[in-house]
Amino acid sequence: MSQSLVQALEQQIANLTHLATLLEQELHLISSRDAEALMNLLKDKEQTLDTIQQSDIAISKQYTALTAEKTVPDDVTALIAQAKKLLEECQYRTSVNQKAVEQGQLRLTHLRNLMLEVRAKESLTYDKSGKPKGSGLGRGVSA
Asked: Cα separation of 129 and 68, whole Å?
């Protein structure tokens, strides 16, 4: 039982390492705004997360059985610590990617607002007394 748990933990570490690599690539694609490649990467990331979840369930059952017997080998404990460290790294990279997406959305919103401001200034006219007045152009057609 202990040997199959060790193999499962080693596979989980490989899965988490792959996830960390995907998250690094994701950040690059977010910053380069390559939407198509990002969508493909997100599919791979989703599959990797599903695999990690399935492995976690199997590992949890085996680990619970070992702890019930109170015989958890040192190599199992070391592998669990390594997996937890990788998981924390993945969580950190996820938060960095989330911030990058949020910053990108803020830049787009700011750009949109600037464009609306410029458009509003272009349609600005003045009345007879010299006071600014927005033109009615573009607001609909009345016949």
From this structure: 89
